[in-house]
Amino acid sequence: MDALALVGFKPVNSTDKVTAGGHLITAGDAVDAAHDQGYVTSACYSPILNSSIGIGFLKNGSARLGETLLLTSPLTGLDVQVQVVSAHFVDPEGTVFVINLTAVTALGGPSARVDHFNGVTVTECPDWALASVTARRGQSGQTADKARAMLGFALPDIGLCTGDGSLSAFGSVPSNG
Hints:
With 177 residues, the protein is mainly beta. Helix content is 7%, strand content 34%. A six-stranded antiparallel beta barrel has the order 1-4-3-2-5-6. It has a two-stranded antiparallel ribbon with strand order 7-8. A two-stranded antiparallel sheet has the order 9-10. A hairpin with a 2-residue loop joins strand 7 (114-117) and strand 8 (120-123). The longest helix has 12 residues, at 140-151. The radius of gyration is 23 Å and the shape is elongated. 13% of the residues are buried.
């Protein structure tokens, strides 16, 4: 079946740029309309993957994950080898809970900062931190269970707070399941 499916694309060479509007050709095929396999609809830089990425439509795309294609745009002279990947790019199975967290202060530095504004001194409290917990659609129960196991207490509902003396949590959005 040649139905178009939404998939992701990342360059084989991480320094190459994926651009929207380019067309996808199976490796080794002629670059012409008869061999067009799909196109990239959106592209941007991913700081997590440290490369350019794109999403678009590809014939039989979900069965072609891992395949290398030519992303080409004869109008701009673009020719980039791209790999077909999940359109989720990072953690498509939703299995990662916490990854490589580095402690920073509220203003993003490694240590407390002191700023002065028109006679007012603002000092960061580095022993206080704020973290956000979010869940993929349909996985709020699983995420809540993991947070409970990690924190030692259940996450509170919207407008409420809870804690264990050393940690506190407040609910800012309703659970949507």
